[in-house]
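User: quick one
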Amino acid sequence: MQIAKEVNLKEGTLCYHCGDVCKKGLDIQSGDKVFCCTGCKTVYEILNENNLCRYYDLDNTPGISQKKLNSAVGSRYTYLDDPNIVTQLTNFTEGNISVCTFIIPQVHCSSCIWLLEKLYKLNKGIIHSEVNFVQKTVNIKFNNTEISLRQVVELLVSVGYEPQISLNDIENKVKYHSNKSLYYKIGVAGFCFGNIMLLSFPEYLAPVGSLEHSFKQFFGLLNLLLGAPVLFYSASDYFKSAWSGIKQRSINIDFPIVLGLLVLFFRSTFEIVTNTGVGFIDSMTGLIFFLLLGKIFQSKTYDALNFERNYKSYFPISVTVKKSGKETSIPVSNLKQGDRILIRNNELIPADAIMFNGNANLDYSFVTGESIPVPKVAGEIVYAGGRQCGSAIELEVIRTVSQSYLTQLWNKDTFIKKDEDKFNSLVNVVGKYFTIVILMIAAAAFVYWYPSSLRTAINAFTAVLIIACPCGIALTNPFALGNAIRLLGRNKFYAKNASVVERISKIDTIVFDKTGTITQTGDAEITFNGNVLNTKEQMLVKSLARNSTHPLSSRIYEAISETDVPYCSSFTEHSGKGIEAIIEGNTIKLGSALFAADNNKVLLNNDKLTSKLDSRIFLSINGSIKGFFAVNNVYRSGLDDIIVSLKNRFKLVVLSGDNEGERENLQKYFGSEGRIRFNQSPADKLEYVKVLQETGHRVLMIGDGLNDAGALKQSDVGIAISEDVTNFSPACDAILDAGEFSRLDKMIAFAKATKRIIIMSFVISVIYNIAGVTLAFQSEISPLLAAILMPASSITVVLFTILATNIMARRKGL
Amino acid sequence: MGVIIILIFFSVLVAGGFLAAFLWAVRSGQYEDRYTPSVRILFDDETDGIKNK
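Assistant: Done. Structure below.
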């Protein structure tokens, strides 16, 4: 590791802190270390002063690039002085001690854990800090007389770990989903099951009648004692589920299970108390234990991912308001129409507003997936959700936060309606018929035996219910779907829960969002339209573009292959308009049409030049317009393959928020019969999905931005595609890593195959049940037989589903 | 044969102790983060920490 570092230093290219390439000519050094920006250097110096440089030994260049961040923290966190916000953010306060939890998305390596747990070295007020790497949170305990919450946050920012504090944290505290109660239940069930098995062995092994009578009764009563908590505590969720099914006048799979369990327990109690047998408590506890194991297996969750995020998770909690010349920060929810707000570099616009002052360059990638910033000038309306890139701007709010163009999407019915499970799982459909058939067979057994003896009739009736308990069927779903989730997760497709996989298997229509979903974010193609540029001109343009950090400039810089670039001396950047410089005596301008033409509209007297269908950057050299660079969308690699393979099996639709500029290109992929709709607002997308569903389609929606959130929520399966799965995704059912987009068709095929496996597994367990019921009908069922047959069918089913899903995943190329 | 009953009583008692330990472990949150402790344990103890405190 040490050697690698020295080599990097000699080349003088990589930042010691974050590992980014240092631009030539910028000499930012501290001692013998080189940095890419002053931010990184500052962090290093803080750590160096405090003897925390081991941070750099644990992992190579572990730091977080500081380039994009606001260099001056200044008054940014003044809202954290507000006692109201402080109480809402802290978990609890007792005397001088406060505890709070922050989400820090940047946590990525062991150095991060090390440093964040050494915070007490940087400030005496911090007592203890603990990182949860998987959830990317840090829990900080501090003495609130020595350090305020604001200082804690500023301390984190100063070492490069800016916590994510959003509106959501204020309104409802970060809640961790935890399945502690499931662990308790399985603990109790495992304990009782183990002991009961031990106590039942004498009965299994001893020759009939040789076991001393007093022992038999003692073991039986002990079994009963141990079995009761398993039935009434560990299995309580099954009772609740069966009961809620009955209340809704439907029978789900839990009903026959509960029926079987109750019959098992009461028949055993009767046998033990009346001293007529030993009962089936061992089978009952074993069954519950296996069912709970299945639940644990199915409850695989991706802790670091969040499937419930809405705009509140991304919007800031406070904003700087200018009132009679003074700047104060107020909570975003208190913003009123007419308030004048100040948005600094890298801050998010929280409400629809009119540009008042300054030059905006808004990055709407959260909303639309389009990462190229849009310039806006004074007087224009800007919509909430844009991130300012550049100097501070002043805005006047025209709509409150919840009424904005984007955010009012969340006022729609789709979001207000309680998220009830509208989906009827296959297993519950099967369970319904299964229950009816079993009750009929049991009744038949009773009627058949009744003439000979009431006792035999009751025995046969209960035996049928016991042996037919559909444990195999009940175990199929958790194990098949749970394993499918794991296999898909390995391919970077993260499903929210098991029912998502089953729902995918039913879809017949796929709706794509365009920008950011089928086009690639941040990787656009640049073409030049106009007079062909000669080598000299190309070099001049490249030299100019090198000086600007604007994303479009860097793309133009990369697009020109010339290497012999002249030095550019007088560079000026006109924020929101363009850049200009004088290079070797030539005046070069890059920017908006008006800027490049020096506001001389005559030069632009050409409709073609000012078309608004794509982003254009005009170039003028010495006052004459040479043409423009156009940024074209780049479609994700592998898109044509997926479309070809999906086209025959599904109805495909593209919904785009953009104009029709890309119609021809899209038709190349989707064919002329493909449905492509442009100029779709977030609400239009939602409505369109709704209409599809009303005409009987089951819709899978794939989108990436907050503007797709409505459609994702409305669709049967909403998949969010994300470049960085832990950082950003709208609320959805599943998150797909953008790099794996080209394998989407295989994943859908796998989900469909999983459903076939489930059906096959149902057949297997029904065969077991038929065999068992045949024996039970003759009223010849011994505890030993039950103890063998029930686990045997469960184990067969579990093994079959796991093996089959694994084989299927390999066959489908996952 | 009464001794068997006493033995069974003790064996259930011991097993109950393990159950209690498991429930305590769940309650104290040991099953909530199963990754970070595995990294944390590999950090060396401070060598210069005592001097600089």
